[in-house]
Amino acid sequence: MTDVFVYAAARTPFGRFGGALAKVRPDDLAATAITGVLGKVPALDPAEIGEVVWGNANGAGEDNRNVGRMAVLLAGLPTSVPATTVNRLCGSSLDAAMIASRTVETGDADIALVGGVESMTRAPWVLPKPSRAFPARDVTAVSTTLGWRLVNSRMPAEWTASLGECNEQLADRFQISRRRQDEFAVRSHHLAHVAWEAGHYDELVVPVSDVDLARDEGIRPDSTTERLGQLKPSFRRDGTITAGNASPLNDGASALLLGSAAAADRIGATPTARIAGRGTYALDPQDFGIAPVEAAHAALARAGIGWSDVEAVELNEAFAVQSLACVDAWKIDPDIVNSWGGAIAIGHPLGASGARILGTLAHRLSVRGQRWGVAAICIGVGQALAVVLENVASGSEK
Asked: Is 348 a catalytic residue?
């Protein structure tokens, strides 16, 4: 088994629902991310890419089922480059990176391109086909933007609660107040703004053609706890979760180039981080927000390290409450978590988020000279994924 490294990362800016990227198809967003990451390794002949694994949570519309293959073709890569699309909802592109890393480990490919895309704006409405022709009754179109759709009646009701209600249950269970959630959200916006101002995202974010969007569209540097405190709860009349302390609906794409050590000459670049451990975890669907706790524990165990070794964490902020629940359970310093902002500010285009946090983590470790980092993400219907990275420039790589 060979070690697997992150060589390059790129993503589009993330747009608001109905915002600057609303007119851009998801396959074109994906092609932009692919072109962007390959632009960072100009010496690489794209024909050398042995596998493309792409994440996408929808697939029902312009994603066209296998959006990974569509994006490869639209990006102008040779038709000989194979591609598949995986769907693990919010964790799709982190799953893509995990799958591709195993492909490189086993020697099935030396170089793999991974990533993910979501246009939540352009996600279509769908109509279920009738069991009999020409029904006389009205038929309701169902949005595929987010959440459950066309639910199987055999599913227990507690499993199919809305994502927001599930996290209200977490707030009750762990006694996480509305004010703590709002403070966490304000922190996300502040840190994302500071990171952009400091130039930390300049090397990661690539422009989208014919779109006037240079930065993530949802960042609000003027956010305050007092302002967020005036928002009405979104899921319960007396609830704690609002539009201000949950991740928004977004459009965007992200990509990573993975490879073995032996591929460095062909790639023409020095790797930034080694994939040292992977973890998956599943539990009751309504408890998905806390699932990253055990996924990260599994990844750390496989990397042979503990939380005391970790200096950087990228945790996708689906909701402030679930992020706080995970950080509390890990008993880690909150300052090492999402120190360049998180999804509440940056955005959460479902299929793109996993690769975003992994690429950001690799870059953070490199910029700060830190050795170990964890990327973790919660996933609807009771799952989570986590990856441990080791900075190869730390002088302590395997």
From this structure: yes
DSSP letters spanning 1-62: ----EEEEEEEPPPEETTSTTTTS-HHHHHHHHHHHHHTT-TTS-GGG--EEEEE-S--SST
Give the C-alpha separation, 29 to 299, whole Å. 30
Say if 208 falls within a structural domain.
no
DSSP state of 309: G
| pLDDT higher than threshold 70 for residue 43 | yes
Tell me if 50 sits within 8 A of 100, measured CB to CB. no
Contact between 36 and 30 (Cβ < 8 Å) = no
Mean pLDDT rounded to a whole number for the chain:
97
From the list 200, 297, 363, 378, the catalytic residue is 378
Q: Are 189 and 220 in contact (CB under 8 A)?
A: yes
Q: Which candidate in 90, 166, 200, 326 is catalytic? A: 90
Residue 84 lies in a domain: yes
Q: Which domain holds residue 291?
A: 5-121+248-389
**Euclidean distance between CA atoms 107 and 145, whole angstroms:** 37
pLDDT digit string, tens, across residues 171-212: 999 999 999 999 999 999 999 999 999 999 999 999 999 999
Which CATH number belongs to the domain containing residue 279 in this structure? 3.40.47.10
In a domain, 229, yes or no: no
Q: Which uninterrupted H or E stretch holds 386?
A: strand 383-391
User: Which residues, in sequence order, are CB contacts of 134 under 8 Å at separation 6+?
Assistant: none
Q: Is residue 88 part of a domain?
A: yes
Task: Identify the bridge partners of residue 38 per DSSP, sorted by sequence position.
Answer: none
pLDDT category, 1, cuts 50, 70, 90? confident
Contacts 24+ apart (CB under 8 A), 237-241: 239/164, 239/168, 239/171, 240/168, 240/171, 240/176, 240/177, 240/178, 240/181, 240/321, 241/164, 241/167, 241/168, 241/171, 241/181, 241/319, 241/320, 241/321
Q: Which helix (H) or strand (E) holds 383?
A: strand 383-391
Among residues 189, 190, 193, 348, which one is catalytic? 348
Give how many domains the chain has, as a whole number. 1
pLDDT given at position 398: 35
- The tokens for 326 are 């995970």
Helices (H) and strands (E) in the chain, counts: 11, 12
- Residue 378 falls in the annotated catalytic set: yes
Q: Is 203 helix (H, G, I), strand (E, B) or coil?
A: coil
Query: Are 343 and 329 contacting, i.e. CB atoms less than 8 angstroms apart?
Result: no
